[in-house]
Amino acid sequence: MVASLDGYIAKKDNSVSWFETSSNYEQGVIGQDPIEFLKTIDCYIMGSKTYEHALELSKSYGWAYGDTKTIVITNRKLPKERKNIEFYAGDLTKLVNEVLNPKYKNVWLAGGALLAKEFLRLKLANEIRISIIPIILGDGVPFFDSIGIEQALHLKDVTSYKNGIVELCYSINS
Predict the structure, then answer these.
(1) DSSP assignment string, 15-61
(2) Considering the entire predicted model, what is its pTM?
């Protein structure tokens, strides 16, 4: 997930133009090649709002998820714009245990906040990666909003990038 320093993943209007940063951190590293990183992902999971937002952005920037299998969690009828898109409405535990775990090694929950919260609440996620953008939005769509459980984490890695973004990677203690 990408978030502002104050924990928002989007502005109230769902815009993410603030993702670009002109910050400079001299001691930071140059980021991993995004193309190479994306090749490590076997399957994406996203909520319906994230899917609709990604479709809208794809009109200007192309489909960000390539040909990788993408499962959209929804009860609504949505347009299937690509052959690698699948829609799922049902039990998330069943999805993880019967569909994802046997078939995929690196599943990436691409968004949104409600879906991430549900995966955490059901203890279906094993890692949280959050990239903190050097900005305070003051208001917007929160990443962690009333999850309802306390969850211990273990810091696996921290990376500071030249553009001022800090990525935190936590494993989730069961």
Answers:
(1) --GGG------TTPBPPPPHHHHHTT--EEEEEHHHHHHHHHHHHHH
(2) 0.84
